[in-house]
Amino acid sequence: MNDLINYLPTYERNSVILQKLLLAEGLEIDEQEMIIEDLSNQMSISTATWALDIYEKALNIKTDLTKAYEERRSVIKSKLRGTGKVDKDLIKLVVDSYTNGNVDVGFNGEIEVTFNDVKGVPPNMQDVQNSIENVKPAHLGIFYQFAYLLIKDIHNVMTLNELQSTQINKFAFNEVI
Question: How far apart are CA 122 and CA 115, in angstroms?
Fold first, then answer.
């Protein structure tokens, strides 16, 4: 409302009628701005919320409302990136959509994916595997390597509170996929 009142001449700024009118208009304008901002957010996969199911339907992805928005966005990005000639760059693009980068992909008779920044197995690893299976040739195997916390990463580096708050699957004695 104050923004609208500032456009009035000084002698009209104290009018109760104009103040109430501008208050009503100001609230309406604010609501329209929020609607426009929300719609703008839905236009980008990185900020979309309620429009994720539209993207999923367009890409023939089964909508799973139990997954977090970030996980659903990763599946969508992966599907969009997973077209073209299958090479290590394409596989890296697909995996990067889930991990926000710092993944190495190599080929030595099979596809080798190394997670460098994420400690332990990423929480959405099943989605990563499904996406890679959808783009890689069927005759190629795939091997995943994960980064874990080692003694040198925690000894005299992490406090006891930090250790207690770190999930057990981040340490180097866990599972292999």
Answer: 9
